[in-house]
Amino acid sequence: MPAVEKITRLLEVEWNVGRTGIIAPRGVLEPVEIDGATITYATLHNPGDITRRDLRLGDHVMVHRAGDVIPRIEAPVAHLRTGDEQPIAFPEVCPRCGTGIDTSEQRWRCENGRNSHLVASLSYAAGRGQLDIEGLGHTRVVQLVEAGLVADLADLFTLTRDQLLSLERMGETSTDNLLAAISAAKEQPLSRVLCALGIRGTGRSMSRRIARYFATMDTIRAADAEGMQQV
Ligand SMILES: [Zn+2]
Predict the structure, then answer these.
(1) Residue 226: predicted pLDDT
(2) Labelling 145: which of 49, 60, 65, 192 has CA 20 to 30 A away?
(3) Closest residue by Cα to residue 156 from 129, 128, 184, 117
(4) How far is ligand 1, taken at its centre, from the CA of residue 107, in Å?
(5) CA 200 / ligand 1 centre spacing (Å)
């Protein structure tokens, strides 16, 4: 797909927390039509990028869109500045859970990691490409987290029948089905378990390669940086 660029204004910056705890800035734009689609959001990559480009709220910015990839904000158009542009405020604590932020790498991350956006990380872990737990969709995950029954991925595996029955809209049949599905998830191959953990820098393909190389979870846990580099 050919890339298309247009100029619009940057109105606001939102800070979203992903399933691994990555805190990513997203620009809210004055709606602009690019290549047949109305664009209102565009990625800003990371805080260092904002500083490097000296972006400010109210700036006219070049928005770049190529196919279905999330549009991104390029440089501000400096000669269109009026002097009313405002600096972009960076969060001092995680916008989702209020914990400190690890800013040691380009991409900022909540110190709570994948437990920061627990619903997102659990939904991902239970998803089809990972543990594939039938009956554990987004709504059910929200329910479990809100009831305080699950505070970490491992908690899923110690849920009891009584705990599940105490939830709304959970009958005996769905409880037994869910418990059976959770139990079956324990038999998933190593690559899927590893992927479900949501370790930074691993996705499905990297998890498969790591699992193939090390073969057992114990070997993975014992691996040093050099061993990991061999993958
Ligand atoms: Zn957090």
Answers:
(1) 96
(2) 192
(3) 184
(4) 14
(5) 15
Question: What architecture (CATH level 2) is domain 117-185?
Answer: Orthogonal Bundle (1.10)
Ligand 1 (single-atom ion) residues, CB below 5 Å: 94, 96-97, 99, 110, 112, 116
Q: Which two structure tokens, joined as six digits, stand for 144?
A: 């479990």
Spans of all domains in the chain: 3-87, 117-185, 190-230
How many angstroms does the Cα of residue 225 sit away from the middle of ligand 1? 27
Which residues of the chain fall below pLDDT 50?
A: none
pLDDT score for 156: 96
Query: What count of Cα atoms within 13 Å lies in the side-chain half-sphere of residue 203?
Result: 1
108-140 per-position pLDDT tens digit: 999 999 899 999 999 999 999 999 999 999 999
In 75-231, alpha helices (H)? 118-126, 138-146, 161-165, 172-185, 190-196, 204-214, 217-222, 225-230
CATH C-level class of 3-87: mainly beta
